[in-house]
Amino acid sequence: MSHQRLTPDKLVDALTPPGVDPAGHRRNHAKGICFTGVFEANGAGSVLSHAQVFTRGQYPVLGRFNVATPDPNAADPTVRVRGLGLRTSTPDGQEWRTAMIDPPVIPASTPQAFYDLLLASASKDPDAMKTYAGAHPEIAAFGAWAHDAPWTGSYAEERFNSLNSFIFVDNSGAERAVRWSLLPAAQPVAVPPEELAKRGPDFLEQEITERVRGGPQHWTVVVTVANPGDPTADPSKPWPEDRRTVDVGTLTVQQIEAEPDGPCRDINFDPTVLPTGIRTSDDPFPAARSSAYAKSYDRRTAEAQSYPRTTTGAKP
Amino acid sequence: MNGDSRRFTVPQRVLHWLMAVCILAMLFIGVAMVSTVMPKYLTLVSIHKPLGIAILMLALLRLVVRLRSGAPPLPVDLPEPMRLAARLSHYTFYILMIAMPLIGWGMLSAAAYPVALFGGLHLPAILPQSDSLHALLWDAHFYLAFAFFALILLHVAAALFHALVRRDGVFETMIPVSTHDGGAAAQ
Predict the structure, then answer these.
(1) Which of A15, A96, A107, B161 has its CA 20 to 30 A from that of B10?
(2) Are A287 and B135 inside 8 Å of each other by CB?
């Protein structure tokens, strides 16, 4: 569709549909709420990566629950994809940042295809999506998830996936391609979307605030190791179910804070901010995400006056 | 050779040409970096940061060397406006060589990005996290980069003017080898 060179400006521009004013906000995953907590590593990840974050211990985290929409005022029940941004800091001064979502795959194979998908979904041509899907059959896996996967009533019941593959480097220098996921401790309860629609536009933020006030919420951090030949460069393709997994620890969310004056507001959950012991793989998405997230960050920090830091009343 | 007061000293010439290469590379890397979403984006960023810090250290070293060694006198017949331009452009070069890396470092600090160099080596933040500082420094880094490039073009134009039009020896003060004893140098 677009054969000109894809720039971060074009990619970020394409995220915002007509009629949406994103000023001051992230250009995608624009609506969210901050959390703080701890990642408790059990030490098992050390066999895969020499990053300090996998040695047994507790490391502070800062994160953000979000809904995958470019509209900061979107109603929670209208958004299919939910996300989680996470920054884990270790005493050696390094950071592991990741931005994850709840579907098992990305709808597109490459950043260019993702851009074409954005253009197709914003197109006035009624056949644009059909044409796109014809040229990009890999969208079917995401489509099946969007259609069939149950909706839940809480961020705490979501499984979040890195989707992109990264390389873990162990103490001996051996490298393995991995993806990671957060598996919720809370039992997911399927709620029909019609039911969620009755819960109000901010029900996810209100629910997680209440829930964490009642007690910390947990996720198991699981690393999945690719076999040779697995599609590490294509996040639209899941890996077979039988791949080796390693539980590396537990994420605990201890406190929720509103975003306007919260600690996650001005953090860019750039998935290429990695400690030594983790690096990017042949997956082309993290580089594109890094470039586009930086552009989004540059824009929104320059527009900060459009997003006041003081919350007025309706704070969840 | 060190006694030749008509030329910059050897350390000054080495620093000049080394930094010329670094700074030109830096400007092109910067422009390429902010206009791509390809995997080379990460490669370019991973060069841009440590190279910027290297330029900062070289610039500070060069400032010390310049203060100690001085500069060869300009030709006595050089018109005053050109003298002034030479002096101002040199001040501006030093300011930019030192300020640009600091602005970049400060910009990353204000955005709470880790300032990673290589192999796990990282620098401390030099500014508190601040969206307004980030926005200000981002603009400064962007526009000063183009000003820097413009200054380099002026500098090259002036050097060629000295070399080809005035032929007053100013160009020879910074070239890597001497042309006064040209035969020996060429062999």
Answers:
(1) B161
(2) no
CB count in 10 Å sphere of residue B119: 8
Question: Do the chains contact at A5 and B36, CB–CB below 8 Å?
Answer: yes
DSSP A157: G
Please say whether the structural domain A8-306 has been given the CATH code 2.40.180.10.
Answer: yes
Question: Is 0.85 exceeded by the ipTM?
Answer: yes
Whether CATH 3.40.50 fits B10-72+80-178: no
Phi, psi (5° rounding) for residue A80?
-75, -40
Residue to substitute from B31, B34, B35, B37, interface A, most A β-carbons within 10 A: B37
| Torsion angle in degrees (nearest 10) through CA of B57, B61, B67, B68 | 170
Identity of the residue in A95, A272, A287 whose CB atom sits nearest the CB atom of B37: A287
Phi, psi of A177 (to 5 degrees): -80, 135
Nearest to A266 among B112, B116, B119 (CB): B112
Are B42 and A287 a contacting pair at CB < 8 A?
yes
Question: What is the rounded CA–CA span in Å between residue A226 and residue A161?
Answer: 15
- H-state helical runs in chain B: 10-33, 40-69, 80-110, 131-160, 182-186
Residue among A246, A268, A232, A215 nearest A99 (CA): A268
B26-38 confidence digits (pLDDT tens): 999 999 999 999 9
What residue spans of chain A are helical by DSSP H?
8-15, 111-122, 128-135, 139-148, 193-197, 203-214, 285-302
Q: Would the CB atoms of A266 and B34 count as touching at under 8 Å?
A: no
Using one digit for the tens of pLDDT, what is the confidence trace for A181-233?
999 999 999 999 999 999 999 999 999 999 999 999 999 999 999 999 999 99
pTM metric for this prediction:
0.94
Are B42 and A267 a contacting pair at CB < 8 A? Answer: no
How far apart, in whole angstroms, are the C-alpha atoms of residue A298 and residue A301?
6
Distance of CA B146 to the CA centre of its chain: 13
| Residue ranges per structural domain of chain A | 8-306
| φ and ψ at residue A111, rounded to 5 degrees | -60, -35
Instruction: Report the relative pairing of strands A175-184 and A217-225 from DSSP bridges.
Output: antiparallel
* Cβ contacts of A123 within 8 Å, gap of 6 or more: A129
Q: How far apart are CA A177 and CA A49, in angstroms?
A: 11
Asked whether the CA dihedral B175, B181, B183, B187 is positive or negative, the reply is negative
Listed in order, strand segments (DSSP E) in chain B are: 115-118, 121-123
Q: Are A259 and A253 in contact (CB under 8 A)?
A: no
Whole-number Å distance between alpha carbons of A112 and A11: 9
Two structure tokens written together for B25: 């590379």
